[in-house]
Write a structure and sequence with these properties.
The protein has helices at 7-38, 55-61, 64-95, 102-110, 117-127, 138-145, 162-187, 191-199, 204-215, 217-232, 236-242, 251-261, 265-294. Helix content is 71%, strand content 0%. The protein has one domain (39-294): Orthogonal Bundle (MetI-like fold).
Length: 296
Amino acid sequence: MRVKFNKDNALAMALVMPSILAVFIFVYGFIGWSARVSLSAWKGLLPDYTWVGLQNYRELFADPRFHIDIRNTLIFTVLFVGGCLVIGLGLAILLDQGLRGENFFRSLFLFPMALSFIVTGVVWRWLMNPAQGSRISGLNLLFDNLGLDFLINKWHTTPTWGIAAIALPAVWQMSGYTMALYLGGLRAVPESLREAARVDGASELQIYRRVILPLLRPVTLSAMIILGHISLKVFDLIVAVAGKQVTLDVPAIYMWTTTFDGNFYGRGAAIGILLLLSVAVLVIPYLYFTLRKEGR
């Protein structure tokens, strides 16, 4: 079928063309420019586009610091995504029971999402103060007053596993958002399915396990994609809580220090391209299967 380019079509194209050009230049154009810089020897304030091929990438994967980045990212992603899914689903199931004051609790759980990671990081930096003795404060002081001394720890300053503590404020902030996703999925389940399961003698636990949870798989997948790409790009939360430390390093922080502190733009661009590819690995298959399903 041919599309007739009448006056209305021409006007519509004229209205959307500036946005299309802006996206093409400032998104895809800069992605292409970053890819070119990642293949160059640019180190210093003056541009140097000397072609070095994949040298920056080879040196990056051989760098022990980048190995720490990958390890920290994996730990943070598993704890962050897993914690948000479990807590979000639990809160959604509780709210789905017809709880009195549901609107209040739903708003209460969603409130942390309205904050930026910087604000969350500043607050949790005090809550996770690793100081002990006379300078004890935050959660450690709470544990001390409750007689739970075995829970007192050094939080993000703990060697090797300090990144696990950074997942706590991230889960606190995003579990309410996950709850909203799951609650929408629960409300979309027809009541007739639950009634049919009850008639067949299924308990409430069996209804959720055998009927509702399988129907929530698309919601779980969407939540995992959204939370996963957030975890891969985490930067501001870690800096706000603990600053830039090698033990808590992630690719985004490494990219910042390499590019703007060390002026090694070639390697910094290489880290940026790897971050883009890691996010694309999550997002593109999800978009493909989603659009394919909608097109049926």
